[in-house]
Write a structure and sequence with these properties.
By secondary structure, the chain is of the alpha/beta class. The protein folds into two domains: 203 residues, Glycogen Phosphorylase B (Rossmann fold); 170 residues, Rossmann fold (3-Layer(aba) Sandwich), CATH 3.40.50.2000. Helix content is 50%, strand content 14%. The strands form two sheets. It has a six-stranded parallel β-sheet, sandwiched between helices. A six-stranded parallel β-sheet has the order 9-8-7-10-11-12, sandwiched between helices. Helix 10 runs parallel beside helix 11. The chain starts with 5 loop residues before the first strand and ends with a helix.
Length: 388
């Protein structure tokens, strides 16, 4: 029987990445340890629903209309000392509610896929109100101090780039595991590209560009970029995912009627892996979930105006790895599209081949195995203490 009887996963729904990482690990555990009871908690919504709504509204508005302001906030919070009053207040957010949850649920391990609750659990451990092992999944290729807390037992990270950043901040090497960022299994399975092209009504002879603006469709200038692609003067076909942005879906559906190229417009899509499987290039933001899925599918990336903060860090990592190009304005989007689709398609193929060096498959499975291992070590220590 697995020593991991109960796992509490603390996440938050700011974008899709944190939640999807939580669900991916939950699903992997269901295979490796079916008897494990997993509770996934949207932490901010649970402990402070009003603050959660306000913070989420401000987050979406700032990344869409004032990204520089969000970048200032990101940089500012990265400089908060762990012992400061502000950090202690952040670590106290919902602390009594979480202490009660730990008492009721009695998890063998806590996993955090969002930085705030990781700090709260660490603070509870400092206060000796719990001794539960704490694991953290960092869901971007970026290092930010809000992820780093003194009593975290293990960090699961997406790349050596993040590992080096944690080491530079004093985290012991044996507290870091380069697992990759957990994604759904569908992105790691073999697929029949021809069958999926036929399913989505695509021409195998035309390059396919997938445009994704994130779960809320907040990529800047996305309407203008799509309209230019719809009228692109070279053979292309375009797939657009607008997420939960209903207004954007209506706008692009109307523009689609006058397109010179084949176009498919989708709203929120559960089976995004199918669209990535049939695409030759993705034009997107640099969110941790989307880029991890694209890497798994070996899909070259054209990153557009990443949000200052974690997305800029993600973009730097991907461009340095040779699997993405970066556009800071619409003119650069056009230049990169022409180079990758028309003038030098072999560069696009080279980018695709380089994804094999960067992507890490089976991250969710590796993290699930790591959590079982942590529970097993704790059980062995408890047994040894009892015998002594």
């Amino acid at each position: 029987m697995s020593p991991l009887s109960r796992l509490l996963v603390l996440s938050a729904s700011y974008g899709e990445g944190h939640q999807q990482a939580a669900y991916a690990v939950r699903d992997a555990l269901a295979i490796q340890s079916p008897q494990t009871q997993v509770e996934v908690m949207d932490y901010m919504r649970t402990v402070h629903p009003v603050l959660d709504s306000v913070a989420k509204y401000c987050y979406l508005k700032s990344v869409r209309f004032a990204p520089a302001l969000y970048g200032w906030f990101y940089r500012g919070t990265s400089q908060i000392p762990p012992s400061s009053l502000i950090q202690r207040q952040l670590n106290s957010l919902g602390i009594d509610e979480l202490a009660g949850m730990l008492q009721r649920f009695q998890p063998d391990v806590v996993l955090s896929t969002f930085p705030t609750p990781a700090g709260v659990v660490s603070f509870l451990k400092q206060q000796r109100r719990t001794d539960v092992p704490l694991a953290t999944v960092i869901t971007d290729h970026a290092v930010h101090s809000q992820w780093i807390h003194p009593l975290t037992d293990i960090y699961f990270v997406g790349s050596q780039y993040v590992r080096r950043g944690l080491l530079a901040r004093g985290i012991p090497d044996d507290h870091i595991r380069v697992s990759g960022i957990p994604i759904r299994p569908a992105f790691e399975r073999p697929f029949d590209r021809s069958a999926l092209q036929q399913k989505h009504g695509l021409d195998p002879g035309r390059p396919t560009v997938l445009v994704m603006g994130g779960a809320y469709g907040v990529m800047g200038d996305i309407v203008q970029i799509c309209e230019e692609l719809f009228q692109y003067p070279h053979p292309v076909q375009v797939l657009v995912v607008t997420g939960r942005n209903e207004r954007l879906y209506a706008q692009l559906t109307a523009s689609q009627r006058h397109a010179a190229n084949p176009v498919r417009v989708y709203g929120f899509v559960s089976e995004v892996w199918e669209l990535m499987a049939v695409s030759d290039l993705i034009l997107t933001k640099a969110g941790g979930l989307t880029i991890s899925e694209a890497l798994a599918m070996q899909l070259p990336m054209l990153l557009y105006r990443p949000i200052p903060g974690q997305e800029v860090q993600n973009a730097k990592f991907l461009v340095a790895s040779g699997v993405a190009v970066l556009a800071r304005n619409r003119r650069q989007v056009s230049e990169h599209l022409y180079e990758l689709l028309v003038r030098r398609p072999e560069k696009r193929l080279l980018m695709r081949s380089r994804t094999q060096r960067v992507r890490k498959l089976n991250a969710a499975q590796e993290i699930a195995a790591g959590l079982i291992e942590i529970a097993n070590r704790c059980q062995a220590r408890a047994h040894y203490s009892y015998q002594s």
